Amino acid sequence: MSYVIGVDLGTSAVKVLLVNHNGKVVKEASREYPVINSQSGYSEQDPEDWVNGTFQALKEITSSLAADEKIDSISFAGQMHGLVMVDEGGKVIRPAILWNDTRTTEQCHDIVNTLGNEKLFELTKNPALEGFTLPKMLWVKKHEPENWQRLYQFMLPKDYVRYRMTGEMAMDLSDAAGTLLLNVEKGEWSSEVLKAFKIEESRCPKLLFSTDQTGELLPDVISETGLNASVKVFAGGADNACGAIGAGVLKEGLSMCSIGTSGVVLSYEKRGDLDFEGKVHYFNHGVPDAYYTMGVTLAAGDSLYWYRKNFAPDLSFDELIQEAALTPAGAEGLVFTPYISGERTPYADAIVRGSFIGIDKRHTRGHFTRAVLEGITFSLNESLNIFRDRDKVIDQIVSIGGGAKSDFWLQLQADIFDAEILKLNSEQGPGMGAAMIAAVGSGWFNDLTECADRFLAVGTVVKPNMENKEFYKSLFSVYKQVYNQTKEISRMLNECKERVVK
Strand 232-234 vs strand 84-86: parallel, antiparallel, or unpaired? Predict the structure, then answer.
């Protein structure tokens, strides 16, 4: 009996899946770790926490195996964009700056002023946003020059964990696409971008496909994790690319909605030469020679988590959602915008903040909860509209993550997205995508599509409610006005806040 392992290195925890030849998760283990928020807009983590958590979870998995059971291979999915800096000895120089860190607005302006948006989109296919890796590098270069001088190579989070397991520094294309340093169409580091910002290419790791094997397990890792020396290690991919693989989004016409800390809508693209003018992200897929477009809501599930933590800490998420389900569609005139951490798609605005609009004394907690769920889903729908504006047909969407765990939220997605929502029988998100990469790398299947045919099956199809669908179209037009009506207010409030802090 043999297995593969998929490691999903998330923002709040690492999850490790043990998967058999039929795609069944036989065992899983997870470990949480903290986020460091030392200042407003700062979001960092200690990479050692990732390593310790991953090794502990792996040890829990391997200690459960019988004598006749073995692990063939392991691969990784990981949170995107985070900057890990190591010196020539491979030691971490400073805490990792995460994807949801928003301190780099000035650096984003510098990137646009230096390259111009047209050249930036031509080379990297993506806009200069605070979440990406290049602005973080430029921030360190300006504010921590002593750390910049020590930089030997930069890595992304899951690549650092893999480096600690194998001693090999490398990065797959799907994760590299989120650095703003990759020529996405050509699949290589952009010499023009590197030259423009005086970054030596030697500081960039070598590039691989997600299914490429990379290194062998180090002896101390074998001892700490219980993995056998024969276990093959494969590069893996960005969490969203692996989420798409784990959802079976492997051919033209398929899309995915993932609601975790952030929210993502993603659509498969077979071409790398399209021009979306930076309105959505455009990245290399974990599938060789394939791509995907993606819109991001920075605080999707995070908005619901924030709301429950502060206003209903004694209720479970299920109890909250049950209250929301008892209120009418549209929460009787209450609208929420999930900009509590700024926003990415379609506004790319780190300063704007969230709001409840239309509060009335008749509104109960159920109304507020429903407004939060609707607002998150409206935000994701803005990205879907950008895809559809290019005559792309989106009538079926695979839903994964927290938004797929609630029948009510699945129906809400169907009604607001005006599409059939598919829920898989067993949904494990990016971790399953990583396991599928390992399975293909081990030779269990010829390619990821063949693997998906074995591993994945649709369990539920949720169709739009025709009455609610039409109502939400009207309410969505109202929702879309809130950003433009409040963005200047957010800037004024931010200036007031900064004066108080000083």
Answer: unpaired
